[in-house]
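BUG-279 | component: ligand-complex export | severity: low

The export step for pantoate jobs runs without errors, but we want the raw record kept on the ticket for reference. Input record follows.
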Amino acid sequence: MKIISTIDELRDQLRGQLRTAFVPTMGNLHEGHLSLMRLARRHGDPVVASIFVNRLQFGPNEDFEKYPRTFQADVEKLEKEGVYVLFAPNEKELYPEPQEYRVQPPSGLGGMLEGEFRPAMFQGVCTVVTKLFSCVQPRVAVFGKKDYQQLMIVRNMARQFAMPTEIIGAETFRADDGLALSSRNGYLSAEERAEAPFLYQTLNYVAEQTRAGHADLLALEQDAMKRLAARGWQPDYVSIRKRIDLHAPAREEVLAGAQLVVLAAAKLGNTRLIDNLEI
Ligand code: PAF
């Protein structure tokens, strides 16, 4: 695997490649990321991964400084996956001057759910993804469904800007007890780690109740948040949305069989976890 830290060298290395499959990451790679690499391999060749902890998508009181950086271990994992190029620029390379041009997602989609609680996030994501795509010029790029809203925002962005990159969503990779793998799981104490699968259990509860025809989805969401709070979680939201646009479904849409997803974000101690489940 070639480890490349400059845009010029990356462009030289990838010149003429028309089927590049790209997986952008912020490092601290776990099995979930590696499953994205494997999916990328099925959709293109060569596979290019990036590691860049993108300051622009973190709010002032968020975990940019303490975000786990495990470069050597990440390199070893990517080598085993047969990744051809790892693009790992530093901040000076990707943001040599203040990044004044930014890509702003629409306030409807970008301002709800995660966007409500992390206002800087999606503008930061769209900006860095656009820049990374410009460097890598991938034919396909793989994003995990664990970040469901991010996947939709990036997919819509690529479509609206007619980017020549197909966005592929990868299923969420879960531990045996159901917890979605995330770099932030590493912040959990042993006790919190034992409690953490309850978020997924709550999503399953909401999904089952919805499938069974629970009439009042708002009440169901509130019930789920109460269940979390009763066990010491601080929920930001548990929300049943339409898969197509992440808007709340009207009763008639539910009855007409609209495809739904339930999304949740909640803090356990100091760690904020997100997860979702298609219903
Ligand atoms: O999902 C992530 O790890 C990040 O948001 C991404 C897509 C690599 C952009 O920094």
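Assignee comment: Attached the raw record above. The first strand starts at residue 2 and ends at 4.
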